[in-house]
Amino acid sequence: MNERRSGRPTGVLFDIDETLVDLRTAMGNTLREISAKDLAHFTEEDWSAYQHLYAADPQGYYDRYLAGELSFSRQRLLRVAHAQEVHGLPAFDDDAAEAWNAAYDQTLPQHFQAFTDVMPVLDELDALGIPYGAVSNNVHDYQRAKLDAAGLERIRILVGIDAVDAAKPDPAIFLEGVRLLGTAPAQTLYVGDNPVVDGRGALNAGLKPLWIERSGNPGLRAAYPDLPVAGDLTAVTAVVSGSELPS
What we know:
hydrolase activity; DNA polymerase, domain 1; magnesium; HAD-SF_hydro_IA; hydrolase; elongated
């Protein structure tokens, strides 16, 4: 058995977006709320496509933010500009872009919610005395506010990209989380929704990865045979209780 996968974890680190917090739904609800008047002609199909395109970010603007090429606000505005263009909508002028961004900033936190499987898992970790925290590809203060808005104030250990000037999959950001937990990398479970950034990133940093793939897409799962995968966070309870990681 792979040494990284053997033994019972003594600590757990989580990704935040799409692992603990349902960010896609929050973004979709925010887009709809702040644009409902201007896009009153949209059908449900239009809204679904518009929301999906913004969240999916096919142009990779968020990755450019992580690389230091764009500001956080700029990557957001470029994402919505792309969605506007694809749907044949006019581009925002500077004033409209500023107003849209301000409305988005104000509205988005109102829609942050934890997935329903989060609290039971954290309860179990508390009962077992297993420390946990979060490692995220965004800055600490923004993600701290997100966790709090989603009712996850109990997650006190949090590492953002500004902590070590590195983003996942760089090993440094994972290892900073391990340091704060006070655990060994090989006995720390890292749980995230992205197979490359979270799964293989954690594996390469010496942690135990657990990929959460909520859609149940067999083709996607087959593309990463090296990663233990589960459909929801209930697998975390099994792993920390001494069961084998899913395969």
